[in-house]
Design a protein that fits this description.
single chain; 9 strands; binds zinc ion; 2 domains; alpha+beta; Arc Repressor Mutant, subunit A; disordered N terminus; Jelly Rolls
Length: about 260
Amino acid sequence: MSTAVPITKSTSQSPPSSSSNNNKHVVSNKILRKLPRKEYNTVFPRLEWVDLPVHTVLNQEAKSIENGYFINAGLASILTVMVGGKSVEVGLTGVEGFVGLPLVAGFKSSSTRVIIQIGGSAFKIAAKDLVRLLRECPVLERSLQQCSQSMALQSTQVAACNRLHDVNQRLARWLLMSQDRVGGDVVGLTQEFLAHMLGTRRASVTVAAGVLQKAGLIGYTRGEVTIRDRAGLESATCECYDSINRQSKLWQNESA
Ligand SMILES: [Zn+2]
Protein backbone atom coordinates (compact mmCIF):
# COMPACT_ATOMS: atom_id res chain seq x y z
CA MET A 1 0.00 0.00 0.00
CA SER A 2 1.07 3.53 -0.63
CA THR A 3 2.55 5.59 2.12
CA ALA A 4 3.57 8.47 -0.05
CA VAL A 5 0.80 11.00 0.26
CA PRO A 6 0.85 12.88 3.53
CA ILE A 7 -2.66 14.21 3.19
CA THR A 8 -3.45 13.58 6.79
CA LYS A 9 -3.46 15.56 9.98
CA SER A 10 -6.99 14.25 9.99
CA THR A 11 -7.76 10.75 11.12
CA SER A 12 -10.75 10.60 8.80
CA GLN A 13 -8.58 10.34 5.72
CA SER A 14 -6.55 7.54 4.32
CA PRO A 15 -3.71 7.20 1.86
CA PRO A 16 -4.69 6.68 -1.74
CA SER A 17 -4.44 3.56 -3.81
CA SER A 18 -0.94 2.67 -4.87
CA SER A 19 -2.11 1.90 -8.38
CA SER A 20 -1.67 5.37 -9.88
CA ASN A 21 0.91 8.10 -10.11
CA ASN A 22 -1.21 10.17 -7.69
CA ASN A 23 0.61 8.83 -4.70
CA LYS A 24 3.71 10.86 -5.49
CA HIS A 25 1.84 14.07 -4.84
CA VAL A 26 0.71 15.76 -1.69
CA VAL A 27 -3.01 16.45 -1.71
CA SER A 28 -3.52 20.11 -0.89
CA ASN A 29 -6.95 20.64 -2.41
CA LYS A 30 -9.28 21.46 0.46
CA ILE A 31 -12.31 19.67 -0.95
CA LEU A 32 -10.39 16.41 -1.29
CA ARG A 33 -8.80 16.81 2.13
CA LYS A 34 -12.20 17.19 3.76
CA LEU A 35 -13.60 13.95 2.39
CA PRO A 36 -14.30 11.16 4.86
CA ARG A 37 -12.17 8.05 4.42
CA LYS A 38 -14.81 6.03 2.59
CA GLU A 39 -15.44 8.72 0.00
CA TYR A 40 -11.77 9.49 -0.37
CA ASN A 41 -11.06 5.87 -1.16
CA THR A 42 -13.87 5.88 -3.72
CA VAL A 43 -12.81 9.12 -5.38
CA PHE A 44 -9.04 8.87 -5.37
CA PRO A 45 -8.61 6.01 -7.88
CA ARG A 46 -10.53 8.10 -10.41
CA LEU A 47 -8.18 11.08 -10.11
CA GLU A 48 -5.19 11.86 -12.27
CA TRP A 49 -2.55 14.32 -11.15
CA VAL A 50 -1.81 16.93 -13.83
CA ASP A 51 0.66 19.75 -14.10
CA LEU A 52 -1.03 23.04 -15.04
CA PRO A 53 1.33 25.54 -16.67
CA VAL A 54 0.25 29.16 -16.94
CA HIS A 55 -2.31 29.81 -19.73
CA THR A 56 -3.68 26.23 -19.66
CA VAL A 57 -7.37 26.38 -20.56
CA LEU A 58 -9.39 24.05 -18.31
CA ASN A 59 -12.90 24.80 -19.52
CA GLN A 60 -13.96 26.66 -22.63
CA GLU A 61 -17.12 28.76 -22.91
CA ALA A 62 -20.00 27.08 -24.78
CA LYS A 63 -18.02 23.83 -25.02
CA SER A 64 -18.65 20.57 -23.26
CA ILE A 65 -16.78 19.94 -20.04
CA GLU A 66 -14.64 16.86 -20.51
CA ASN A 67 -12.90 16.99 -17.13
CA GLY A 68 -13.21 18.54 -13.72
CA TYR A 69 -10.17 19.76 -11.79
CA PHE A 70 -9.54 19.79 -8.06
CA ILE A 71 -6.95 22.58 -8.05
CA ASN A 72 -3.96 21.51 -5.98
CA ALA A 73 -1.66 24.51 -6.51
CA GLY A 74 -1.73 27.71 -8.54
CA LEU A 75 -4.58 29.95 -9.53
CA ALA A 76 -7.35 29.60 -12.11
CA SER A 77 -9.26 32.56 -13.43
CA ILE A 78 -12.90 32.34 -14.49
CA LEU A 79 -13.56 34.62 -17.43
CA THR A 80 -16.70 35.79 -19.15
CA VAL A 81 -15.89 36.15 -22.84
CA MET A 82 -17.71 38.54 -25.16
CA VAL A 83 -18.50 37.81 -28.81
CA GLY A 84 -15.71 40.12 -29.97
CA GLY A 85 -13.18 38.26 -27.85
CA LYS A 86 -12.90 40.71 -24.94
CA SER A 87 -12.98 39.02 -21.59
CA VAL A 88 -13.23 39.94 -17.95
CA GLU A 89 -12.58 37.92 -14.84
CA VAL A 90 -15.66 37.08 -12.79
CA GLY A 91 -13.97 34.87 -10.23
CA LEU A 92 -10.82 33.06 -9.29
CA THR A 93 -10.14 29.79 -7.61
CA GLY A 94 -7.20 27.92 -6.17
CA VAL A 95 -6.49 25.22 -3.68
CA GLU A 96 -9.92 25.66 -2.09
CA GLY A 97 -11.83 25.00 -5.27
CA PHE A 98 -12.95 22.90 -8.19
CA VAL A 99 -13.21 23.73 -11.88
CA GLY A 100 -16.12 22.18 -13.77
CA LEU A 101 -18.91 23.14 -11.38
CA PRO A 102 -21.78 22.98 -13.93
CA LEU A 103 -21.32 19.19 -13.81
CA VAL A 104 -22.55 19.21 -10.22
CA ALA A 105 -25.91 20.56 -11.34
CA GLY A 106 -26.16 17.97 -14.11
CA PHE A 107 -25.05 20.35 -16.88
CA LYS A 108 -22.53 19.35 -19.49
CA SER A 109 -21.19 22.60 -20.93
CA SER A 110 -19.35 25.59 -19.53
CA SER A 111 -20.66 29.16 -19.59
CA THR A 112 -17.22 30.56 -18.86
CA ARG A 113 -13.60 30.13 -19.87
CA VAL A 114 -11.36 28.93 -17.09
CA ILE A 115 -7.67 29.54 -17.57
CA ILE A 116 -4.63 29.08 -15.36
CA GLN A 117 -3.19 32.45 -14.37
CA ILE A 118 -0.56 31.21 -11.96
CA GLY A 119 0.90 27.83 -12.86
CA GLY A 120 0.27 24.89 -10.55
CA SER A 121 -1.30 21.45 -10.57
CA ALA A 122 -4.60 19.67 -10.11
CA PHE A 123 -6.21 16.31 -9.66
CA LYS A 124 -8.23 15.79 -12.82
CA ILE A 125 -11.38 13.72 -13.00
CA ALA A 126 -13.32 12.72 -16.11
CA ALA A 127 -16.74 14.37 -16.23
CA LYS A 128 -18.55 11.03 -16.48
CA ASP A 129 -16.70 9.69 -13.45
CA LEU A 130 -17.55 12.73 -11.39
CA VAL A 131 -21.23 12.52 -12.23
CA ARG A 132 -21.29 8.88 -11.17
CA LEU A 133 -19.31 9.53 -7.97
CA LEU A 134 -21.64 12.31 -6.89
CA ARG A 135 -24.35 9.71 -6.41
CA GLU A 136 -22.11 7.69 -4.12
CA CYS A 137 -20.40 10.49 -2.22
CA PRO A 138 -22.73 12.88 -0.41
CA VAL A 139 -19.93 14.85 1.29
CA LEU A 140 -18.24 15.45 -2.05
CA GLU A 141 -21.53 16.50 -3.61
CA ARG A 142 -22.27 18.95 -0.81
CA SER A 143 -18.76 20.41 -0.90
CA LEU A 144 -19.06 21.02 -4.62
CA GLN A 145 -22.49 22.59 -4.22
CA GLN A 146 -21.01 24.92 -1.62
CA CYS A 147 -18.15 25.65 -3.99
CA SER A 148 -20.72 26.69 -6.63
CA GLN A 149 -22.26 29.11 -4.18
CA SER A 150 -18.86 30.55 -3.31
CA MET A 151 -18.16 31.20 -6.97
CA ALA A 152 -21.58 32.83 -7.37
CA LEU A 153 -20.80 35.01 -4.36
CA GLN A 154 -17.54 36.12 -5.96
CA SER A 155 -19.18 36.81 -9.32
CA THR A 156 -21.93 39.01 -7.91
CA GLN A 157 -19.52 40.98 -5.74
CA VAL A 158 -16.99 41.36 -8.56
CA ALA A 159 -19.76 42.60 -10.91
CA ALA A 160 -20.60 45.36 -8.42
CA CYS A 161 -16.92 46.03 -7.76
CA ASN A 162 -16.11 46.47 -11.45
CA ARG A 163 -18.91 49.00 -11.76
CA LEU A 164 -18.51 50.96 -8.53
CA HIS A 165 -14.90 50.85 -7.37
CA ASP A 166 -11.77 52.31 -8.85
CA VAL A 167 -9.01 50.30 -10.43
CA ASN A 168 -6.53 50.85 -7.58
CA GLN A 169 -8.98 49.30 -5.14
CA ARG A 170 -9.76 46.47 -7.53
CA LEU A 171 -6.11 45.69 -8.08
CA ALA A 172 -5.55 45.60 -4.31
CA ARG A 173 -8.54 43.26 -3.94
CA TRP A 174 -7.29 40.98 -6.68
CA LEU A 175 -3.83 40.73 -5.17
CA LEU A 176 -5.21 39.92 -1.73
CA MET A 177 -7.55 37.26 -3.11
CA SER A 178 -4.68 35.75 -5.11
CA GLN A 179 -2.31 35.70 -2.17
CA ASP A 180 -4.96 33.99 -0.05
CA ARG A 181 -5.01 31.16 -2.57
CA VAL A 182 -1.40 30.71 -3.59
CA GLY A 183 0.48 31.94 -0.52
CA GLY A 184 3.88 33.59 -0.74
CA ASP A 185 4.60 37.21 -1.53
CA VAL A 186 5.26 37.03 -5.24
CA VAL A 187 2.49 36.85 -7.82
CA GLY A 188 3.73 36.26 -11.36
CA LEU A 189 1.54 38.27 -13.72
CA THR A 190 1.66 40.22 -16.90
CA GLN A 191 -0.04 43.58 -17.33
CA GLU A 192 -2.17 42.13 -20.07
CA PHE A 193 -3.53 39.50 -17.71
CA LEU A 194 -4.13 42.02 -15.01
CA ALA A 195 -6.10 44.16 -17.44
CA HIS A 196 -8.31 41.15 -18.27
CA MET A 197 -8.75 40.36 -14.65
CA LEU A 198 -9.73 43.82 -13.67
CA GLY A 199 -11.87 44.54 -16.71
CA THR A 200 -9.90 47.61 -17.64
CA ARG A 201 -7.33 48.92 -20.08
CA ARG A 202 -3.70 47.98 -19.76
CA ALA A 203 -2.69 51.60 -19.24
CA SER A 204 -5.04 51.86 -16.24
CA VAL A 205 -3.41 48.82 -14.69
CA THR A 206 0.03 50.37 -15.11
CA VAL A 207 -1.17 53.52 -13.35
CA ALA A 208 -2.85 51.55 -10.56
CA ALA A 209 0.21 49.36 -10.00
CA GLY A 210 2.30 52.53 -9.92
CA VAL A 211 0.05 54.04 -7.23
CA LEU A 212 0.28 50.93 -5.04
CA GLN A 213 4.02 50.73 -5.61
CA LYS A 214 4.56 54.36 -4.71
CA ALA A 215 2.64 53.79 -1.48
CA GLY A 216 5.09 50.95 -0.69
CA LEU A 217 2.39 48.27 -0.80
CA ILE A 218 3.77 46.30 -3.73
CA GLY A 219 6.85 45.98 -5.85
CA TYR A 220 6.11 45.73 -9.54
CA THR A 221 8.48 44.64 -12.23
CA ARG A 222 7.74 43.18 -15.62
CA GLY A 223 5.41 40.25 -15.10
CA GLU A 224 5.83 40.04 -11.35
CA VAL A 225 4.14 41.66 -8.38
CA THR A 226 5.69 41.39 -4.92
CA ILE A 227 3.37 42.08 -2.02
CA ARG A 228 5.32 44.20 0.47
CA ASP A 229 2.64 45.41 2.86
CA ARG A 230 -0.39 43.20 3.12
CA ALA A 231 -2.06 45.23 5.87
CA GLY A 232 -1.61 48.31 3.73
CA LEU A 233 -3.24 46.55 0.78
CA GLU A 234 -6.17 45.60 2.99
CA SER A 235 -6.59 49.27 3.85
CA ALA A 236 -6.27 50.30 0.22
CA THR A 237 -8.86 47.93 -1.17
CA CYS A 238 -12.60 48.42 -1.35
CA GLU A 239 -15.21 46.78 0.87
CA CYS A 240 -15.59 43.86 -1.57
CA TYR A 241 -12.65 41.85 -0.23
CA ASP A 242 -14.07 41.89 3.31
CA SER A 243 -17.57 41.37 2.09
CA ILE A 244 -16.71 38.14 0.24
CA ASN A 245 -14.69 36.83 3.19
CA ARG A 246 -17.36 37.74 5.74
CA GLN A 247 -20.08 35.91 3.85
CA SER A 248 -17.80 32.92 3.21
CA LYS A 249 -17.06 32.61 6.94
CA LEU A 250 -20.75 32.90 7.77
CA TRP A 251 -21.56 30.07 5.36
CA GLN A 252 -18.71 27.98 6.74
CA ASN A 253 -20.15 28.33 10.24
CA GLU A 254 -23.64 27.57 9.04
CA SER A 255 -22.52 24.35 7.38
CA ALA A 256 -20.35 23.16 10.28
ZN1 LIG B 1 -14.94 46.54 -4.78
